[in-house]
């Protein structure tokens, strides 16, 4: 059995600002071809405006709680729930509490 693993020693800081109300600092943890993992931290009340991703998106919350609006439907996501979005689904989010989340795109 072949096991593929890549250890990432250095996190790359990236600025993500394409449709957000203000500049959001995010850490790109992994990027290869069409796959990407990004960590985003928001303070309570911070908002990321509606946008789309051309990829499948999985949201994993490490700490806190966040409200996503996906195609007009609101859903709260925390450590006990994972959010999955199809490519090109319109979505936005608002941090209910201080939140740390992981965005996996593939």
TrEMBL record:
Transmembrane segments: none annotated. Coiled coil: none annotated. InterPro entries: Cupin_2, RmlC-like_jellyroll, RmlC_Cupin_sf. Signal peptide: none annotated. Residues 41-101 form the Cupin type-2 domain. PANTHER family: SLR8022 PROTEIN. This is Cupin domain-containing protein. The lineage of its organism: Bacteria, Bacillati, Bacillota, Bacilli, Bacillales.
